[in-house]
């Protein structure tokens, strides 16, 4: 189970306890090192009991859905069915590195992706960290909140959660580039994202937000103690 024998994004078929045929993938939805187990339903309870029993000496704990949601949002992990759907391309959500465009492998949609790569995308998945939001007094974002760039509507959020590491609310969503004259969509560039001043509208009140196209660097380098998180990373990047 070490990284040398089980690299990230690999999948193997393994046995757990008396259950065989368990598909184990070296990835998680929270952005932390770990594994996902795909278990035949008849083995589910047995595998759970085995993992919980062996895991006691490692401090294993059950984690609720909202805890996992918070962890994946603060690490800028998109969620299928909520952030992404069949109309989203890898180039629009920052997952182009997962697509083998240059290795001569043909697949459905390859020509369309190559054309989009050449022409540019018309929406870009973006992370927003709320600046002036009071967690105790203000309404919390959930999803579907309007996103404003320099006072102009550019999209809406698809996921939101409170980040216990950053001690801020974090929203994910797609930014569009609408022409002020015609309203038609234009190409969204990295420069377009980085040069804007953003606000998230929560129940009619706009809150300032910092836009990021990549996870906060301090979350990658200091994942264990929130005291180590450099909140200065939120500004100027």
TrEMBL record:
Source domain of life: Eukaryota
Residue intervals of the GCVT N-terminal domain: 4-103
Domain Aminomethyltransferase C-terminal: 123-211
Matches recorded under InterPro entries: GcvT/YgfZ/DmdA, GcvT/YgfZ_C, GcvT_C, GCVT_N, TrmE/GcvT-like
Gene3D superfamilies xref list: Aminomethyltransferase beta-barrel domains, Aminomethyltransferase fragment, Probable tRNA modification gtpase trme, domain 1
PANTHER family the UniProt entry points to: AMINOMETHYLTRANSFERASE, PYRUVATE DEHYDROGENASE PHOSPHATASE REGULATORY SUBUNIT, MITOCHONDRIAL-LIKE
Family per record: Belongs to the GcvT family.
UniProt protein name: Pyruvate dehydrogenase phosphatase regulatory subunit
Organism: Equus caballus
Gene behind the chain: PDPR
